[in-house]
Amino acid sequence: MGQPGAPANPYRIGEAAALLGVSADTMRRWVDAGRIAAERDEHGHRIIAGAVLAAFARELARPETAAAEGRPSSARNRFPGIVTDVVLGDVAAQVEIQAGPFRVVSLISRESAEELELVPGAPATAVIKSTNVMIERR
After folding, report:
1. Which end of the chain is least crowded, N or C, by CB within 10 Å?
2. Residue 76, by phi and psi: left (phi above 0), alpha (psi -120 to 50) or beta?
3. Mean pLDDT (whole number) for 63-69
């Protein structure tokens, strides 16, 4: 049992940031700007209640929010990461992205891989909708 008045399922800033796929600095800026509420624990660390974080994550995933932030898309599942491997074939390219703890591999056209300049070390986002995985260059 937690302390009386303590938020249920509290997350420290770094944990919350990792779950949302952003840096701890970004998370701190969002808290400081009032985009998401945080409290202080008994050690003075900022913590975010699990329910508050879940609501904020849902808000970030809404198409209207994505459009307002300059990333409109109908896809809901986005995994920002770094390209770790690209295998170019005559027609297709196999692109591997490490997105946090997730390894995502996608087959796309060679032309798309070249236009997006997908090379190891490039930032990219795996966008998953249904059974299709699309790659976007960040």
Report:
1. N
2. alpha
3. 58
Nearest-10 crossing angle of helices 13-20, 24-32 = 110
pLDDT tens column, 5-22: 555 788 999 988 888 888
Q: Tell whether the model's pLDDT for residue 110 goes beyond 90.
A: yes
95: tokens are: 């692109």
| 3-class DSSP assignment, residue 8 | coil
Torsion of CA 14, 15, 19, 25, to 10 degrees: -10
Q: Are 17 and 23 in contact (CB under 8 A)?
A: yes
List CB contacts of 109: < 8 A, sequence separation 6 or more: 91, 92, 93
Question: Rounded mean pLDDT of 91-100?
Answer: 91
- What sign does the CA torsion over 39, 27, 73, 109 have? negative
> pTM for this one?
0.50
Burial of 85 from C-beta contacts in 10 A (0-12 / 13-18 / 19+): middle
